[in-house]
Amino acid sequence: MTTSxxxxxxxxxxxxxxxxxxxDLIGYxxxxxxxxxxxxxxxxxxxxxxxxxxxxxxxxxxxxxxPERHGPVVVGDLMAPHPSGRWTVVLCHYDTVWAAGTxxxxxxRIDGARLTGPGAxxxxxxxxxxxxxxxxxxxxxxxxxNIRLVLNGDEEIGSIGSRPIxxxxxxxxxxxxxxxxxxxxxxxxxxxxxxxxxxxxxxxRGVEVHAGLxxxxxxxxxxxLARVVLALHGAADLDAGTSLNVGVVSGGTRPNxxxxxxxxxxxxxxxxxxQAARIDRVLADLRPAVPAxxxxxxxxxxxxxxxxxxxxxxxxxxxxxxAEALGLxxxxxxxxxxxxxxxxxxxxxxxxxxxxxxxxxxHARHEWVDLDRMVERTALAAGVLxxxx
Length: 389
What we know:
The chain has helices at residues 3-16, 18-29, 38-56, 102-105, 120-139, 163-172, 221-234, 273-284, 310-325, 341-346, 371-388, and strands at residues 61-65, 73-78, 87-93, 109-111, 114-116, 146-152, 177-179, 190-194, 196-205, 243-251, 261-270, 294-303, 332-335, 351-352, 359-360, 368-370.
């Protein structure tokens, strides 16, 4: 059979698996894995590994990492059935933004081809699709690369504990990196670029005095905070892909006291390292209007920029060819959200992101997955892995 014919048959085989994939997704979504609950994360990781064992077989090699105060991380090797010198890194996170008990008032529901439930779109369906894609290839004795899979338990809170593990895996594993985060937009675009993310806190110290007795005295940290917010929002450059958002502010003690302290929590998104450097200068140059006040900035860049490199585009072209062989059409895009793929891209690895669910509603109560497209994307992932062999 030609490559196109083989890939076309993968769609038929994925369709046959639809019922099992739906059952696997339901069981996975009903296993709550909030980022801040270590007990539930450990139980959820156990569920994931049992599911993977049942679907694709055991890891040839498995390493468990337990970062302090963060979800455990497993790195597992899925060796190709036939000897292969090629490797592909696959990144998946199993934690979600949803608190323990969310299922009580938001259970998994299916309406036609739409499944809704906490974490289904971001990103539990992606792992189900990946596992069944590997199973499709292996049961049909089709070639694929060796796969080094990272199961991350703290992605939704910044991958603080897992970042060094991910970077170590990428450094020592030559080959492309596939990320099974949800796709983007209604057409399910794949992601060849992501913005870098900076998370900063601006701390302002003022001088407290009685607001009625000495209205011109002291130094109001809240006044300074208002100026800082305007300055930060004014530093945005949307045409250059740079946004700044002060999302949380606090300060002061009582209405009749000139505030002695205030803080602002800042989220920054940038599309280039040059813009990140510019924002660093903006933050370093913040100065109070009143000399008696002071400003300090803490925090830093949570994820580096994932730029649209030639290597990323070439990897997308591989996926595009696999899609065409399946009779599907895919597109690429750049998004403002970040993922663990940012870390891999910053190390120079080719990265293709968004291979997971088609649907909508990440981090929202209307989160949902298109089950028909889940079948298509499983076949697509299988086609990509076959071509990477």
